[in-house]
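Write out the 3D structure for:
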Amino acid sequence: MQHILEFWKDACLDAITPDAVLDYEKANVRSAKKPGRSRATIRRELSDLRAAVKAAAVNHKVHAIVFPKLPRDGAPRKRWLKRHEFDQLFAEAAKEYRAAEPLQLFLMIAYYTGARSGAIMDLRWSNIDFDRNVIDYRLPDRGELIVDHKPRAVTPMAPPLRAYLLQRYEAYEKVPEFVFHQKLDHSRRVNSVVKGFRATVERCGFKDVTPHTLRHTRVTELRNMGMHSHQVDAFLAMTAETQDRVYTHADHSDLQALAMQIA
C-alpha cells in the first residue's frame, strides 16, 4: 500500500474517482522517459485498495462506494526458459554465498511443479508425500484449496524432483518443520529467495526472468508435450482460459518438425 498512501495521503474515499485512478496510473507507470512500475503492478495495487475498501464497508467502518474501473492490464509476459537456460540458472545459483541451498531447492520445485512462489515458500515437509509421490500445496492446518484468492494444487513429482527432495529429506538428522530454513538454524524459516534469484539472473545475463517465469515455463512445457488444458488445470490449478491467455507459447523451433509430420 506504500504507493497508494503516498498518492492519496489523507484524502477520504470520495477522492478515489475515475480521474484520480487515471492520474495514479500516469504518475506511476514506467516509460522510456521515467522509471516506475509495470501496468500489471499498478493494477494490482489498485485492486488491493479496492479489496481494502470493500472489506471496510462490509465491516461497517466506511460507507460503500462504487470503485472506479481499474486500468487495463499489461500485456502477458511471453518469457519462458528453455531447458539449457534453466540448467544454467541452477548452476549459477550455487555461487550464492548464503542463499545457494534454498535457491537451488526453490528452482527445482518451481521448475518441475510450476507452483507460485508463495505456495512453494510455505511448504512444510508434511506437504511432501513420498509414498503417494505428490506435493500438496494446501496449507496443512487448514487444507485450503484457495489461499489469497489463488488456487493451490496437489501436484505429482517428476522423478528428478522426487529424487532431489528425497535426498535432502533423508540427509536430516532431525527433519525440520519447514522445507525452507536457515542453514545453521533449521528452526528459523526462510521466507524469500528473491534477492538471490535476481542476482543469479543478472549473472546469467537473462532478461525479463522472475520467479514467476518458472510457472510460465512449466505450463508451456506441459502444453508442448501434448498435455490437454484440463490436465494442466489439474496439475497446476490453472484454468484453460488463463493458460491460453497468458502462459502458453509455441516453441517455434519445433514447427518445422511438426509440419513434416502432416500427411
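Residues 42 and 158 are 36 Å apart (CA to CA).
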